[in-house]
């Protein structure tokens, strides 16, 4: 996805850029807020960062051999904040037309419930990055079930993704779905398998090679568990 976004002559470039921005802007916003900037300043800085990302060809630096997109973005943001804060602060708010509409009101509501104890800006960024990938995975999984006419099945089974196997009430789910317990066990197994597949696909968009996927999975799971 990053490589597609870098190729401005490609018809997929604009769509890839918008997808990247809409997917990963909140972890960056949370990082800026944790650095001590007010909500309006954090909104301006995040918008301006993405404006630079889109206009100044920052993505040319996100070469395949240079590692994870997660790392590229946070390094680029830190440099941006270091070099551009005074200039951005001096601009009249609302003076330019944002290139991407960001739901900053919702972002601030989400930020208010971020854990505070021992949460550095970098830690918040990494945790939100991992949760963003999980959210995208759940959305895709829900859409697959819905498209297959299995929305109710997904509603009943989704809690099984995080439940311990011994805590899953297969009998209760079977009764609700009109299936046997054995069938439900197979459903849960397939659901978990498909979740893992999609999660790895989402991570694959953000790393340099297939060899890095498992390492990134372990790292992000560690971030969520910490």
Q: Can you offer a commentary on this structure?
A:
This protein has 226 residues and is mainly alpha-helical. It folds into two domains: 1-114, no CATH class; 120-226, no CATH class. The chain is built from ten helices and no strands. The chain is elongated, with a radius of gyration of 20 Å. The model has no long low-confidence stretch (mean pLDDT 82).
Comma- or semicolon-separated keywords:
226 residues; 2 domains; 10 helices; elongated
Give me the secondary-structure topology.
Elements: H1 2-6, H2 13-34, H3 39-55, H4 69-90, H5 104-112, H6 121-147, H7 151-157, H8 170-177, H9 181-204, H10 213-225
The low-confidence parts are: none
Overall body shape: elongated
What proportion strand? Answer: under 5%
Helical stretch tally:
10
Briefly characterize the structure:
The chain has helices at 2-6, 13-34, 39-55, 69-90, 104-112, 121-147, 151-157, 170-177, 181-204, 213-225. With 226 residues, the protein is mostly helical.
């Amino acid at each position: 996805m990053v490589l597609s976004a870098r190729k401005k002559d490609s018809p997929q470039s604009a769509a890839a850029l918008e997808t990247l921005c809409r997917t990963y802007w909140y972890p960056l916003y949370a990082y800026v807020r944790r650095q001590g900037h007010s909500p309006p300043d954090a909104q301006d800085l995040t918008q301006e960062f993405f404006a630079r990302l889109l206009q100044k060809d920052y993505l040319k630096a996100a070469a395949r051999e240079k590692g994870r997109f997660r790392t590229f973005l946070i390094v680029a943001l830190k440099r941006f904040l270091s070099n551009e804060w005074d200039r951005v602060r001096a601009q009249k708010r609302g003076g330019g037309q944002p290139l991407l509409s960001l739901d900053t009101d919702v972002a601030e509501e989400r930020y208010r419930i971020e854990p505070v104890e021992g949460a550095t800006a970098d830690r918040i960024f990494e945790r939100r990055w991992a949760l963003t990938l999980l959210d995208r995975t759940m959305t895709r999984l829900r859409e697959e079930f819905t498209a297959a006419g299995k929305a109710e099945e997904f509603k009943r089974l989704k809690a099984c993704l995080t439940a311990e196997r011994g805590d899953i009430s297969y009998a209760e789910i079977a009764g609700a779905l009109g299936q046997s317990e054995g069938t439900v066990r197979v459903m849960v197994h397939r659901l978990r398998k498909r979740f893992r597949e999609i999660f790895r696909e989402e991570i694959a968009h953000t790393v340099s090679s297939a060899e890095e996927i498992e390492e990134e999975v372990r790292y992000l799971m560690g971030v969520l568990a910490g």
